[in-house]
Design a protein that fits this description.
It comes from Filibacter tadaridae. With about 260 residues, this protein is α/β, with parallel strands linked by helices. It is built from eight helices and 13 strands. A hairpin with a 2-residue loop joins β4 and β5.
Length: about 260
């Protein structure tokens, strides 16, 4: 015989189930409402907008230029901020080698720019452009050379400039800092000839293809000259020295100083 359950006995348990179900529904609605309220408060508060935008010290462009190129601005919504997109934009800027964009203190943006270093200055009718370490030219007509980098003349060919850039990067720093000016003197019979004027008063004649290798012997050559009259050091084939009085006067054949580079 089936057991008969009194409906009055089940009413309390049914009420508890209904109450729990109603509580869950209420908690869900309350949670949605609170989340919505917090979202509204967040989007209306300064926390949802970009705060300070900072850029490290740079030479080729100023900080305001980079901030403008980034597309960012203070008080713009943070939800639209994407560091990768900003980095891609800035990497397209002329002279930029690398970019890192990050958020600091939740709403501040830090942009770190690494520019290509300057290896030389290109002079054209009294105006200067920068030759960067990637072989590209960065124009700046108002620039006056201030760094310890040589001034280049007659390097109008981009291929020749890139070859020179590679050579300059291979020269020892203490020798590189002594170079004041480099003139391209290439002709049909000697297409890679260059002339260097050094800060210590010497003139060097070299071949573009072996320029760096031979110039690294420069301190040794100067030591062998032992402070005699300044003159021309020819490093195109071997290493020869001729005093200025002979080069620009009697023009006699120079003395062989060093044959190690033959």
């Amino acid at each position: 015989m089936d057991k008969v359950i009194d409906i009055e006995e089940r009413i309390p348990s049914m009420r508890k189930k209904r109450r729990r179900k109603a509580n869950k529904k209420f908690l869900f609605i309350l949670t949605v409402f609170v989340c919505a309220l917090l979202a509204i408060l967040y989007f209306q508060s300064p926390l949802s907008r970009i705060g300070k935008i900072s850029v490290n010290s740079t030479l080729l462009h100023d900080q305001a230029f980079y901030i403008g190129m980034s597309g960012l601005a203070p008080d713009e919504p943070l939800w639209d901020f994407n560091s990768s997109d900003v980095e891609k934009k800035l990497k397209k800027v002329e002279g930029v080698k690398a970019v890192s964009v990050s958020r600091k203190k939740f709403r501040d943006i830090t942009i770190k720019i690494t520019e290509w270093d300057t290896v030389a200055y290109l002079e054209d009718e009294g105006e200067f452009s920068l030759l960067l370490e990637n072989g590209e030219v960065f124009p700046n007509a108002k620039l006056i050379p201030q760094e310890e980098a040589p001034v280049l003349k007659d390097f109008g060919d981009s291929t020749v400039r890139k070859r020179l850039t590679k050579q300059l990067l291979e020269i020892d720093d203490h020798v590189y800092q002594l170079i004041s000016e480099i003139i391209f003197a290439g002709k049909k019979e000697d297409k890679d000839s260059i002339i260097l004027y050094m800060d210590d008063g010497y003139e060097v004649r070299a071949d573009l293809s072996t320029f760096a290798e031979r110039m690294n012997y420069y301190p040794r050559v100067i030591a062998q000259l032992n402070g005699i009259e300044k003159g021309v050091i020819d490093m195109e084939v071997g290493v020869f020295f001729t005093p200025y009085s002979e080069v620009y006067g009697l023009k006699e054949e120079g003395e062989i100083v060093d044959k190690e580079n033959n």
